Amino acid sequence: MNVFPNVRFLSLVFLSVLYFHCCDAMMESADGGELMAGVAKVDITDREAGPVNDPLYVKALVLQSGQTKFAIVTVDAVAIGEIGHISNEYLPAVRAAVKGQVGIPPANVMINASHCHGVVCADVADRTVQAIEQAASHLVPVKIGTGSGHEDRVMENRRLFLNDGTEVDVRHAYSLPPDEAVAKVGPVDTQIGVLRLDRMDGSILSVVYNFACHPIQGVPSGANTADMIGFASKVIEENTGDETLALFLQGCGGDINPVMYKDVEHPRDAEPLGNLLGLSTLRAVREIECKEDSRLVVRNQQLTLPRRDPTARIFEMEKEQKRLLNSLNGTSLDLKAFLALTVKYNLSEQFPSYASHRYLHDEQLGRDDFRKLDALNRKNLQAYIRNIHAMEELTRVNTNLRLLRKHQRGLIDSGKRTVDVELTTVRIGDLVLTTFPGELTVQIGLNIKKASPHPQTLVAGYTNGYIYYAPTAKQLENFGGAQEDSDCILAPEWQALYEAKAAEMLQGI
Ligand SMILES: [Zn+2]
């Protein structure tokens, strides 16, 4: 049954207005003179929301060169609007207040969410403005430098390529596919992009570091936490001097999980992962030599991207849901009997049902009663396992189908087949940073870095808004099979448009 008849109608209406454009919203640059910087952080933990393991922060780094001012703001939250505890009014409200009170134009206030799943306080917007104001009122001359760290122990790609050509992702929301169905795994980005800012006396004012990984490991108590980012920043700050502020920029972590994400043998603990990330960042920080460099160039553009209509895929998945449900076949076993038999039949291949002498007596007497029983039990075990796998697949189909339906409703509500995104590209000395307001998957970050003419290019997703996951066109062929391709509003054409625009902005800065 088509429960969303309007979508097809809307598709036709809005197909005719599908277009892509972009326009320069802001470009500011400065050369010569000196680069000034100030930092501040404000606690944004919601202390009413339950136990707190470690505080969540909004952190601000305000840069000024000549007339150009730019604020890098990081928030220990899941996203800038749309989902989680930060509303869609947050970004415009913060920018308007900062324009009025600090004189930084809205397009020059960049806010990145670490994507940790902590609970922030209700007045997070006021506290963000407070952090930016404080940072802007403590500007000092700085020397800057950039470098890269390496980390490959804390994360893993969560996309699994299956033998049948489909892809599944590793989530707590559903079961993994059987081991033998998995052919290979996706890539990771081991680079930690680092910007170091020193005061003129050589002490470190701030470290900005960029890495791609979902900070969703949690802590053993289950309490509110900034996750691995909170721990990594603490390690950096505690080992660089009392007055250093470490700001984390989430990269293209859309399909990157904490390592061993589905481990059930150990309490989930982000602290050791954060410690490793922090130490690897520190190693890079120590290698960086800072120099006077006042280049601060900011470009901010809007890009219009095509939205996807998930209606046809929803029908297919509803069919698949029914097929899986009908594939559940009767078997004599129940869970209790299945578990007991599984132990026995894995313990003794030859004599699973009783001690060997009973089988030997049967053999001597010309009977094969136990052999027949074993054959029947083995058949029932296989049937039960097939049912379990069908049930596990259903958990994936049901979860991803819910995501497609959510975005189908969003498409109807939006009334248009496109979505506008804000892209910021900024040069700070030798370092170039480019942003996107969604969960870019790691391959896109690797592509942008490779195509960039600048040796030190950072890519930050989760910045200046949130439009859900932004996977590759190839990953979108798997549409409905994994979170990244299901929790997504974009049509596959988006990737080429975005990568071309990012390359153009990087060329021009
Ligand atoms: Zn995510």
TrEMBL record:
Alphabetized, the UniProt keywords read: Signal
Signal peptide start-end: 1-25
Report the domain of life of the source organism.
Bacteria
Q: What is this protein called?
A: Neutral/alkaline non-lysosomal ceramidase
Record organism: Roseimaritima multifibrata
